[in-house]
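Quick question: what would this complex look like in 3D?
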Amino acid sequence: MFDQVLWFAARGAGIVSLLLSTAVVCLGLLTAARFERPQWPRFLTVELHRSIALVSVIFVAIHVVTAVLDPYASLGFIAAIIPFASSYRPLDVALGVIALYLVIAVLLTSLIRDRLSQRTWRLVHWLAYAAWPMAVAHSLTAGSDAFAPWMLAIAAGCCAAVIGVLVWRWSVIWPGRRELADVVDRSSFRQERTKSPARKVAR
Amino acid sequence: MNPTRLLAGPPIAAGAESLADHRLRVGARPRATRPGELAASIERSGLLGRGGAAFPAARKWSAVAGRSAGDAVVLVNGAEGEPLSAKDRTLMNARPHLVLDGAELAAEAVGADRIVLYVGADHANSVVALRRAIGERGREMVVPIEVVVSPATYVAGEESAAVQYVNGGEARPTGVPPRPFERGVDGRPTLVQNVETLAHVALIARYGDAWYRELGSGPTRGSALVTVGGDVAHPGVTEIAYGTTVRDLLSVAGGTVDKWSRGAVLLGGYFGGWLRAEEAANQPLDPRSCRDAGSAFGCGVVHVLPPARCGVVATARILDYMAGQSAAQCGPCVFGLRAIADATARIASAGSAHSDDLAHIVRWSGQLAGRGACKHPDGAVGLLRSALRTFSDEFDRHQRRGACIEAELQGRVA
Amino acid sequence: MAGDDAVTIAIDRIACDGRGVCAELLPELIELDDWGYPIIAPGSVPPHLVEHAKRAVTYCPVLAFKLRATQGAESRAAAGVRQPSVARQVG
């Protein structure tokens, strides 16, 4: 009986964390796109992105712990932390493990963000673009619901949401970006760069 | 009548003074007998930086010396990105050994073990002259000296931009702390000093601070180089005692402004300000006095605009240049300065101004100062403000009727 | 003493990208110019707004500014001279 609970918890937590992290990715894209509406200020996007990210990590943790504890999953602790160490569907589980590590890196760098350079933080944060597709692939291929029709539907919905926001972002922001790029191009610095580099000439 | 201290010696047109001639004329470089001796002398002299900010040199020296563990760096700023100024390259071309003496003296005083000569790429003669001078000194140099050629842009001469470029980055201001005197070239405390300032140091070390202070009428003592240009009979670089009036300076250079009733004068270059000719006539040329008058001494540019030329058109051209020279790092400068320049250009092209252009540039210029990582927008806005004040009639005429005195006299100006 | 510490806003103008979140969270002190970049009222942050200022610092998507504490005579000068509502008067 208890085992059934673990099994349900692992699957449930996994699906919830997939949905939440999809929302996090969408909100991250909307933050960068400076999304706002009369009733939706920009800080709300930033706030939701951060809060939901924290909640999704909690659900990932529940998913990993219950999956490891579930005796029928025959996963084992090692398989959860070392990619490809699982005897059960090593690749599919590995996708989840790697995605988890990437998410941990994003989380930790965000927690100590004021002590990092903006560049470092941003490079690590972009790992999220690798983590999320891995999580989607993991949800489709690993576990007892792999390729179940409703699981496919959920995954398709998540992909549609992220692709939709991506397309919207690039279509809406592009004109504004072009204006900034145009001004920068006319600045003396862009023209300097097109000349041959004369750096460190005389020693 | 005009003092010759920095420009004493063989004619400037004769080119670089050799090491031998330099030593014959002013003697060998003095060595400090006690630590801190020269720094104290510089402080007593009240020597101000000649890069445009007029910051007391002694204060910079003590800030760097206080942080140096013998590993400081002296960056000699010969970028001279201001298009109207020619004094720095004149010094580097004709008196390179004065500059090198000053650099070595400063290096000893602040505990530096390296000197970088930062020279603008458009001053090719200066690069040659300095390299040759370094070659003449050979093994006598107390610390390694190298020449770094900087991009020929306006902001490349800004302190933090210079340091960043020497460190291998772009010649763009860095904005946030640490400042060069804290961590500069290679992370070491760096003294960034204008070439003219160091040339003065070379002479103060020889003749003393009391000698330096003999010249000057008013609170600022000493002599300074100025670049006279525009509608004058004899443009060029000359040396004045601080406090000399514009009238006295231009009585030698000559030009239409000798009537002093019409026309305008730009003091301080693109970072400076316009004055009407009659205001400028009695304006003493020293940093504080010029600032109080709504202009600036800056890098010592005195540029005459004849009555036949329109101040609005001249200002529009300068602002267009300044907007194009933005390092393009900060939104207010990238967008605001460009918008101001474009609006002023529309006003200047008599007849194509939008009805609210003048109101816009007044509003935007009130917003721009202090909102960039460097003083570039502040300088441009200062110039615009002085133009709005000095050429208020012309701006009104342009905005309302689209008429321009230049157009009336010379035909349509594009 | 806590009363002597004045808090001021220190912004990195190069990092600032005109995201505008700060102006939403601290409208009493921060206004946006015509291009979306912040105009910050000079002087120190009034004590009742410090919590809001801290939130604005955290929520800036590029962490372009921080709060700096200045002490003693410097803070008295900073607190006394300027009005926080200058943000409205500018521009």
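Answer marked as accepted. The mean pLDDT of chain B is 91.
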